[in-house]
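Data availability (excerpt). The following record was deposited with the supplementary files.
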Amino acid sequence: MAQCNLWHNTEKAVEGKNNCYNSSLMTRQQKKNLWILVAIGAAYFLLLLFPNAFTSGSENPQADLHRDEIVVYPSLERMFDFGPTLSTAWGRIIIHSEYHYGYPFFFLSWLVLLPLRLIEGQEFFGQMQRNIFLLRQLTCVVPMILTAGVMTYVTTELHKTWQAVFTFVFILTTPAIVGNVTQWWHPDALMMLAVALTFLFLKLDRLRLGSYFYLAASACGMAASIKLTGFFFFLAIPIYIVIVWRRQDLQIKKALRAAVGFVLVMAAVIVFTNPFLFYEGPRNDMLAIQAYKTQELRYGYGHEENIYYQLGPQFWQWTVETSYGSVAFALMLLGVLALSALAQPKDVNRWVLLAWIIPMGIYLMWFVSPKPDHYLLPVMLPLYATVLYAFELLARFAGGPVKWVRCMAYIAGVVWAFLVLFQFVWQINTVYAWYLAYFNVG
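Predicted structure:
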């Protein structure tokens, strides 16, 4: 019996609103490739056990913690100090007081450690280094592996093994990504997973504005809830709805209803995943901290004049070249994504990616003063997931009738392969040196 490949052919899946669903949404090859990625992800997880558990042997439990961990961990620890009454315990669990990050980050971290707190009792509070190690692995490394896997599916659909494996490994070996899941408990991996799931659910929606569309709204709300990043879908979602409206001959009323529904679902997720918002005091504290954080992002962390805090793309060059590679390579990836979207106008996912990357990139380049590499993750990770789009684009010309065009396409393919290989080797060498440095080797 012939199977309808919903993962591959968007147009057939939505034309005439047919019902070609199958009991299995993935082909045998896709499932095989998925398990290969699971194995690679497991190996990646195991490799990062060592640097994330690394200690210098100091008796000071904070000696090997990142400064952000030292600041944030007491707020999480307070959530485990349940107190004498249920009301006190509830208040300490939901009012974490560290409002630089959203409550989902703290709640998920709390869930990771809750079994140990229940088993060990008060002894739990003397295990800071172990607790931080578990948080690094389970709330940073695992979500980042999942993010890489989701974005690999979004851009390759797991049809070809070499494409899926290379894209997945290429993402995970980006120095900025390795650095942000090594010896640092931080919400960016969870935030990136929410962003990636938004892309995934929009892809699975297949221009239907159905349940997957509202799952995308939920994931977008979660990204906004964790670190406000979800609000940068302000352009991608309207573009997606307009494309659906134009292609599906949708009534404008239904398109507007979907837009309002998306906003309402997103808002509901933000509110209900931050329960402290129902209390005036914590809500005002959060607004004050976020207002101060906005000023920090605009003007930097101090009042001194510092070239590091200058605005403009040129001042991000050191960060990009240190943690992501050549600026030219990143710009070529962006150009290829734009060209591939123009070459395949019916592939809505490429337009969604562009509509996410461009406004986020503009905001970071021209409106943010501090320049740590993790600020660029929402732009660079999705962009690096498109690393093989150039080969797909060139294949369209390589199969054409004009001989010289075919020749140029093959030459361009060889050149791009060399550039990608050069970038990949640089990534491997960089993260390998970092990895050895954690053990003072080499």
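Summary of structural features: Residues 29-437 form one domain.
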